[in-house]
Design a protein that fits this description.
The complex is a heterodimer. Chain A has 25 helices and seven strands. Chain A is mainly alpha-helical. In chain A, strand 4 and strand 5 form a beta hairpin. In chain A, helix 7 packs across helix 12, helix 15 packs across helix 17 and helix 17 runs antiparallel to helix 18. Chain B is α+β, with helices and mostly antiparallel strands. A five-stranded antiparallel β-sheet of chain B has the order 4-3-2-1-5, with no helix packed on it. In chain B, a hairpin with a 4-residue loop joins strand 1 and strand 2. Classes of the chains: A mainly alpha, B alpha+beta. Chains A and B meet through helix 2, strand 1, helix 4, strand 2 and strand 3 of A and helix 2, strand 1, strand 2, strand 3 and strand 4 of B. Chain B: This is N-alpha-acetyltransferase 38, NatC auxiliary subunit-like.
């Protein structure tokens, strides 16, 4: 018993996250710590008695005896364990260090009230403005991935809003707590964050759970009206000279009012977004626009707020009501991150960006099909949006009960998606297999089976870019088994159909649809490696080769097959209908995947251009294969395409095939660099032509067009002998487009 | 160990790479002292006024000290104001930040 209580006191219990290996070893420290405690003391409060003996000199001189690099340690403690220790006094690792600049006493809220260092009533306007701005700054810092304890909860007022007497301060404090709660809940619900994105720990702080949302927004509005009256009373009346004092007061009240209103609008907007079945999105969007207008006023009035002495604590604003170290004790024992609170203007810029992103997110509810939702997700993610906007997108579109927009069951959405993709007879009313109960069962089972991988796929696109790549690689395994299932269902349906109607086929209908998604993921996976700058330049060749020769080729043929199926279906329907074939020869629906085919061709040509150009560069000795010391090209190749191994169709292309492809010895007469430059030129030109004639000139299309055009010119110059003699490697310029580079000759 | 034919070589290698733990016979006095403190509680005062209490696990020539199950106290540890320590876990204190090292002498405690 005595031993147990002593142990707990010294923090050697299970909560200490880093267990040092010595405690499992023979000479356990438990024995060492077993200090006999007098029973009387034990009953009152278990207390540890130490008997400290100064050994500083002894210790230091003993250390001198050790040799350079020699470690004095127990058998159970090695370099590996030593590596995981946090280093004290290292500003990045040691969060406690912050507390020791200057001899400031750290007071918690209660202590600060007692000492009178925080005001509970009659806060002046500059004080309020300063506090609100700092709260917003710390909220942004939290949203960027820091812990609540080191950001939002450094504001003492938030620790216990109940005791605040100032109505304005109290309303804002409750509003901010509600905001934190809502944001945290949404991010948790969407679960598209990783530890680098977001910290959900609340450290036991109360997030105004005892007050309703309506009450908080009501309080904010009341205070807002009150300030509004002050604004009106100090407003410049016609023909009246205002004294500077009134004018200042007026400006301060305007500043304060805009902040109060901003908090209220943001809060109401978030509440609206969480209404079931996306019913509040229109309201939410309107509120966001209003909030955005207020931000302009707020940005202009930042100077009215009380400002901290920035020279003393450059990374942390200390004004009344804030204490950066108040939660030092709550920080996790693991790697405490060093937190720098973002500036006030920068925070407002962040909110501006956030509002824009949320505005974009609202657009998702206008989409009806799951394929378009997926495209929307991919497009939205390209700008690397913040965790809150990513989460809200998920919450709005898919997060509720496996339903799309909270209304349409996911399975039905998928059924619709397959139908629109290639019109499998099994999904077409009036066809035999549509009405056959057995066939229906097969189809339903398959679609139910597809729900999980596809909802995962949507969720993956909510993650940050780097994590997406990783997760895309993994989801291929799930899709591989779905592909297997699809083939089985197709075969079963086909044999059923062929019995009734020998002319109609049901071959690879669901299979094509799954294959289409698999190929898209594979392409995305490879391209994201370029975006994330994972590949070395000497790896570009096989990456572009794989894309050009295989993935895009497969994708295009898959899309054309889908189109052929659609036409087959069309023809069949005509036939069924009989005579009236004149009018619907050119249906309104048109050819659904055509846009994708065209863009796919363009990207294929781009990749082809790079691949050929690189081939030329190697032959020209502008590029050289590095001498690998610890690996070789094959290892790298296999690693790069490893996730593709789980997929049956298309099969993984072995390294040997790549080697065959780039081995030029077999050609006679031997190929010249120019031969490849000519081909590259053609590829880039083709891409350029496609982009130029593409009807929908989005920004993306224009950028890619520029890339293709520039590369075309560069390779053309190269052909013409420009910088021919130079042997320095070409540069890959990703500034224009983050995936498809511009080649620059040096 | 000496009876093993290859034992001698093995011991040599072990000593060379400083993995040998059974060297009390040849170890220098300083090493022996350090070893006697291993796995005992140490209290280390740092240059910035903080005090760490933890289990001594490892040190080197530059007096860098690694403490296990380490707790951080901001106030003066002798002033038992009931300050809650912060749990740090495994922590390394660079030698040049160490002001004072104390060792929890249990033998004396037991006598008491």
């Amino acid at each position: 018993m005595a031993e147990e209580s002593t142990m707990d006191d010294r923090g050697l219990d299970a909560t200490a996250s880093v267990e040092h290996p010595a405690s499992v070893g023979g000479s356990s420290p438990e024995n060492v710590e077993a200090v006999p405690t007098p029973p009387a003391v034990q009953h009152a409060q278990p207390e540890v008695r130490y008997n400290w003996k100064d050994i500083t000199q002894d210790f230091l001189t003993s250390c001198e005896e050790l040799e350079l690099g020699e470690l004095m340690h127990d058998a159970n403690f090695g370099l590996f364990e030593a590596m995981s220790a946090i280093e004290m006094m290292d500003p990045k690792m040691d969060a406690g260090m912050l507390g020791n600049r200057g001899d400031r006493e750290v007071l918690n809220f209660q202590q600060a009230i007692q000492k009178g260092t925080v005001k509970l009533k009659d806060l002046t306007a500059p004080e309020l403005i300063g506090i609100i701005d700092t709260m917003l700054s710390s909220m942004v810092t939290w949203l960027e991935g820091h812990s609540l304890a080191q950001t939002v909860f450094t504001c003492l007022y938030l620790h216990d809003p109940e005791v605040i007497e100032d109505r304005c301060m109290r309303a804002v404090a409750l509003g901010v707590l509600k905001l934190v709660d809502l944001i945290k809940n949404n991010v948790n619900r969407a679960s598209v964050f990783e530890e680098e994105d977001f910290q959900t720990m609340t450290y036991g702080f109360k997030l105004a759970g005892n007050v309703t949302d309506v009450r908080v927004t009501g309080m904010l509005r009341e205070v807002e009206d009150e300030i509004n009256r002050k604004v009106k009373s100090t407003r410049c009346k016609q023909g009246e000279e205002r004294d500077p004092q009134t004018e200042l007061e007026h400006e301060q009240n305007v500043a304060l009012q805009s902040r109060m209103k901003f908090c209220r609008l943001l809060l109401t907007a978030l509440i609206a977004f969480n209404k079931p079945q996306c019913s509040g999105v229109t309201d939410g969007k309107r509120l966001l626009i209003q909030a955005g207008e207020l931000l302009e006023v707020m940005k202009k009035t930042v100077h009215h707020g009380a400002h901290p002495d920035e020279t003393a604590t450059p990374d942390f604003p200390i004004i009344m009501g804030f204490e950066p170290l108040v939660n030092q004790r709550l920080l996790p024992p693991t790697f405490p991150r060093y937190t720098k609170i973002i500036g006030r203007e920068a925070a407002m810029e962040y909110f501006q960006g956030l509002l824009n992103r949320l505005g974009q997110v609202c657009e998702v509810v206008n989409i009806s099909s799951i394929h378009t939702v997926l495209d929307f997700f991919i497009e939205f993610s390209k700008a690397s949006p913040c965790v809150l906007s990513r989460s809200l997108l998920q919450v709005l579109a898919v997060s509720t009960d496996r339903k799309v927009f909270g209304t349409l069951p996911f399975r039905e959405a998928l059924r619709e998606a397959v139908r629109a993709f290639n019109y499998p007879p099994a999904l077409i009313p009036r066809s035999y297999v549509f009405n056959n109960p057995q066939a229906k069962e097969y189809v339903d089972a398959f679609l139910s089976r597809a729900v999980r991988p596809f909802s995962n796929l949507l969720q993956i696109h909510g993650h940050n870019r780097a994590r997406q790549r990783d997760k895309l690689g993994h989801i291929l395994e799930d899709l591989s088994s779905l592909q297997d299932e699809a083939d089985k269902v197709d075969a079963a349906l086909h044999s059923m159909m062929i019995k009734v109607d020998p002319q109609r086929q049901h071959l690879a209908c669901f299979g094509t649809w799954v294959l289409y998604h698999i190929l898209r993921i594979m392409i995305q996976y490879l391209l994201s490696g370029l975006e994330l700058e994972l590949y070395s330049t000497h790896e570009y060749q096989y990456v572009f080769w794989y894309l050009y020769e295989f993935l895009y080729g497969w994708l295009l043929s898959t899309l054309s097959r889908a189109e052929a199926m659609y036409q087959e279906h069309d023809a069949y329907m005509e036939q069924q209908k009989g005579g009236s074939k004149k009018k619907s020869k050119k249906k309104k629906k048109g050819r659904p995947p055509s846009k994708e085919i065209v863009l796919g061709q363009a990207e294929q040509s781009l990749c082809g251009g790079y691949y050929k150009a690189i081939q030329g560069f190697y032959l020209d000795e502008r590029l050289k294969k590095p001498v690998f010391e610890f690996d070789n090209e094959q290892v790298r190749y296999e690693h790069r395409f490893a996730p593709f191994a789980s997929i049956v169709t298309p099969p993984l292309v072995p390294y040997s095939q790549f080697q065959d492809m780039v081995a030029l010895e077999k050609f006679s007469p031997p190929l010249q660099p120019a031969d490849f430059y000519v081909q590259a030129c053609k590829c880039f030109q083709q891409a350029k032509n496609i982009y130029e004639s593409f009807p929908n000139q989005t920004k993306e299309v224009q950028t890619l067009c520029k890339v293709a055009k520039t590369n075309f010119v560069v390779v053309k110059l190269l052909l013409g002998g420009h910088k021919r003699e130079s042997k320095s490697p070409p540069e890959w310029d990703f500034t224009e487009h983050n995936t498809f580079p511009i080649i620059r000759l040096t | 160990m000496a009876s093993l034919s290859s034992g001698g070589t093995y011991a040599d290698i072990k000593r060379k790479f400083k993995f040998d733990t059974d060297t009390s016979t040849q170890e220098s006095e300083g090493r022996q002292k350090l070893r006697s403190w291993l796995n005992k509680s140490l209290r280390v005062s740092m240059t910035d006024g903080r005090t760490l209490i933890g289990v001594f696990l490892c040190t080197d020539r530059d007096k860098n000290v690694i403490l296990g199950s380490c707790q951080e106290y901001i106030q003066d540890p002798d002033n038992t104001s009931g300050e809650d320590p912060r749990v740090l876990g495994l922590a390394m204190v660079p030698g040049h930040h160490i002001l004072k090292i104390e060792y929890d002498d249990i033998t004396a405690n037991q006598i008491m």
